[in-house]
């Protein structure tokens, strides 16, 4: 893992990059919504619903596709800090499903909102992979 020496203490900075990537994603999506003349409250609703859908579905995808069928248990599904992680593709599917259900009676189109999510999501993914070790590095 990428480390920085701080006063003779090694600090792991990967969680900081994850936090910075999430904050960048949220800010850039909000900014794109404001640029397209969407209301701030509506963009906040989209962010909250999308985040809930992404977290829930990414955990379910990780549980289903990365565990053996015989080792499934409720503990492994709920206690993600001990038994697993989150799946990126599950997060994308969860975001899509949550926004599809949320926007079905609204005047805003789903593809318009997903288009606003595209550029911030790519930048957040790029920020997230910065501290990861590369092939050929020591």
Q: Give average pLDDT, whole number.
A: 83
Number of helices: 6
Overall shape: it is globular
Total number of beta strands: 2
Distance between the termini: 11 Å
Q: Kindly report the spatial arrangement of strands forming the biggest sheet.
A: 1-2
Class by SSE composition:
mainly alpha
Quaternary organisation of the protein chains = single chain
Query: pLDDT under 50 segments (min length 5)?
Result: none
What percent of the residues sit in helical stretches (DSSP H or I)? 55-70%
Taking the sheet with the most strands, its summary is:
2 strands, antiparallel
How much strand? 5-15%
Give helix and strand order, one letter per element, not per position: EEHHHHHH
Radius of gyration: 18 Å
